[in-house]
TrEMBL record:
Protein name: NAD(P)(+)--arginine ADP-ribosyltransferase
Signal sequence interval, chain numbering: 1-20
Alphabetical list of PROSITE patterns matching this protein: ART, TR_MART
Enzymatic class: transferase
Gene Ontology CC terms, in alphabetical order: cytolytic granule; extracellular space
GO BP, sorted A to Z: response to antibiotic
Enzyme Commission numbers on file: 2.4.2.31
Gene: Art1
Length: 259
């Protein structure tokens, strides 16, 4: 019966883990890598060719998505794009199925320490170009804010009214839509974003919609209500906040860059 007990405990552990996965506290996501590259865009751009070469070797998933995205953008031969070819390619690569999830999981953890970013985050090129692309698109649109609606099934967000929070990723949300309801636990977020921009012109591959919100935008939790198994939350843009700035160049000047 000890074996049975062990089995039961193992099963219980699995069940608890599954349940734990369904409740996610929204906070300032301190571990996420949130660099805005303020004041070092030219230096980063100069460092990019060597960095990209190195990452294409170190990160097969990035290499595959980058090659695919490059081909797709070249085929389009778009002349009215506000983005450079590298920026446009980054947006398309980011949306690639498979890479999207892997990249965001890495973004969520890479801010843990300078070493984590330097040694284990092989998406530095994509992070910089995507951040740069969103800033360029936002400037092109005149910096407008917009309401988005994001229904997420299987996860219930938890936050207090008045909290300031961030997402730990480049969050893609539809302007409106998503599933009408969830079979179990779910969240309905109404997010008023001033940094999120619509990338639908470049890609329709994003599973959750075309507006991409960067990890450094902060939000005030305006309202939280519970409807059955659904957490309904209203978030309003409250500016930006970054724990990191020009992180790669700090490593670079110490002489331990990949380039």
């Amino acid at each position: 019966s000890m074996a049975l007990l062990a089995q039961t405990l193992a099963l219980l552990a699995v069940t608890l883990t599954t349940m734990a996965n369904k409740v996610k506290r929204l906070d300032m996501a301190e571990d996420s890598f949130d660099d805005q590259y303020q004041g070092c865009r030219p230096a980063m751009t100069a460092a990019l060719p060597a960095l990209k070469r190195s990452e294409l070797q170190l990160n097969p998933a990035f290499a595959k998505a980058w090659a695919e995205a490059t081909g797709r953008w070249q085929k389009r031969r778009s002349t009215d794009s506000p983005l450079s070819p590298a920026q446009a390619t980054a947006v398309i690569a980011f949306a690639t199925d498979g890479l999207h999830q892997e990249f965001n999981a890495a973004v969520g953890a890479a801010g843990r320490s300078p070493r984590e970013y330097r040694d284990n985050f092989h998406f530095k090129t994509l992070h910089f170009l995507l951040t740069d692309a969103l800033a360029a698109l936002r400037a092109d649109l005149g910096g407008t804010c917009q309401d988005t609606f994001h229904r997420l099934c299987g996860v219930q967000f938890v936050a207090q009214q008045g909290d300031t929070v961030r997402f730990d990723r480049f969050l893609s949300v539809p302007r409106s839509g998503g599933p009408d309801s969830c079979p179990g636990k779910g969240s309905l977020l109404r997010v008023y974003t001033c940094r999120g921009v619509d990338v639908t012109f470049f890609t329709t591959d994003l599973p959750k919609g075309g507006v991409v919100i960067p990890p450094f935008e902060t939000f005030k939790v305006v309202q939280v209500t519970q409807h059955g198994d659904t957490a309904v939350m209203q978030l309003r843009s409250a500016g930006t906040s970054s724990n990191h700035n020009c992180e790669w160049l700090k490593g670079d000047s110490a002489g331990d860059s990949l380039g």
